[in-house]
Amino acid sequence: MLAVKLKGAGKRFQRDWIFKKLDLNLENGIKMAITGNNGSGKSTLIKCLSAQMPLTEGEMTFFLDQKMVSPEEIYKHLVISAPYVELPEEFTLKEFLEFHFQFKKPEDNINTATLLKLLYLENAINKPISFFSSGMKQRLKLGICFFSQSPFVLLDEPTSNLDEKGIGWYREMIYRFGKNKCIVIASNDPREYNFCEQILRLEDYKL
Prior knowledge:
Layout: E1 2-13, E2 16-27, E3 31-35, H1 42-49, E4 57-64, E5 67-68, E6 78-81, H2 93-100, H3 112-119, H4 134-146, E7 152-156, H5 164-177, E8 182-186, H6 190-193, E9 198-201
Parallel strand pairs: 3-8, 3-9, 6-7, 7-8
Antiparallel strand pairs: 1-2, 1-4, 4-5
Helix pairs in contact: 4-5
């Protein structure tokens, strides 16, 4: 059982507060969207939730099966897809998947053949990622999130570089593989998050 809690959380760059006095409780099954104007700090909050970036004030606690997880160990229990997360382009798809699943367990009943079929990448197994289109790279980023046994999923602009068919695929993957996971989506596009039960409007946490 996952529990992520923010209490009185705030993040500041120099004199500008990105968010302040933010309380948040997340757990398995919750789907939450972070919305806000471009440049409002949605990606910053995602980075704070992933423990990539420290808070300026307040605290974040992360529990798994009622045991506290240290900030240094949080990365083991989450997956993230974001524009600033780079794929190792010198790897072939096969090499990358083998590398990734050394650190994350695949979902039950997901083997390589099934994964490639779900990603529509059956013919790219030996292709270097540097030769992938932007849409192929985005599906791969999302796929390793959906198909990994991680209870906490962070998605920043998840359908960037996806066409209408790709957006439909994304929503299907959320439905099929995200039911028991906590999923946080940073977005301004309702098609990416209009299934979420909770909406966090970042403007509500400015000074």
